[in-house]
């Protein structure tokens, strides 16, 4: 299990339930919550900042090694990038 804390800036208001619902499309999604939504207004308009945590089951993405290094630094970087891409896509409402 991995928990990812996030802060996302959005030009559109999305309810906390719908925002977290977007992450549910990630196949390894376990839980998630939004701890705060803040409205930010300035001369450029209004944006919303979402802060929260998403937990994902990562069993198939680790090895039996005690350090869960996936065998090489390159594999770790690739796994992190894949996770980052999936989270960004889910935050935007996309589905893999």
Q: Briefly, what is this?
A:
This protein has two helices and three strands; from the N terminus they run βαββα. It has 96 residues and is of the alpha+beta class. It is elongated, with a radius of gyration of 15 Å.
Q: Biggest sheet, strands in spatial order?
A: 1-3-2
Structural class: alpha+beta
Number of strands: 3
**How helical, in percent, are the residues?**
25-40%
Tally of alpha and pi helices: 2
Mean of residue pLDDT? 79
What is the rounded distance between the termini? Answer: 20 Å
C-alpha-based Rg, rounded? 15 Å
Sheet with the most strands?
Answer: 3 strands, antiparallel
Silhouette: elongated
Unreliable stretches covering 5 or more consecutive residues: none
Strand proportion: 35-45%
**SSE pattern:** EHEEH
């Amino acid at each position: 299990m991995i928990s990812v804390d996030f802060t996302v800036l959005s030009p559109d208001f999305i309810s906390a339930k719908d925002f977290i619902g977007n992450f549910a499309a990630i196949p390894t999604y376990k839980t998630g919550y939004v701890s705060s939504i803040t409205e930010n207004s300035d001369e450029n308009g209004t944006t919303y900042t979402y802060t929260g945590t998403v937990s994902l089951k990562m069993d198939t993405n680790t090895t039996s090694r005690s350090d869960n290094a996936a065998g090489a630094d390159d594999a770790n970087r690739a796994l992190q990038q894949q996770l980052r891409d999936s989270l960004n896509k889910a935050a935007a409402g996309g589905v893999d």
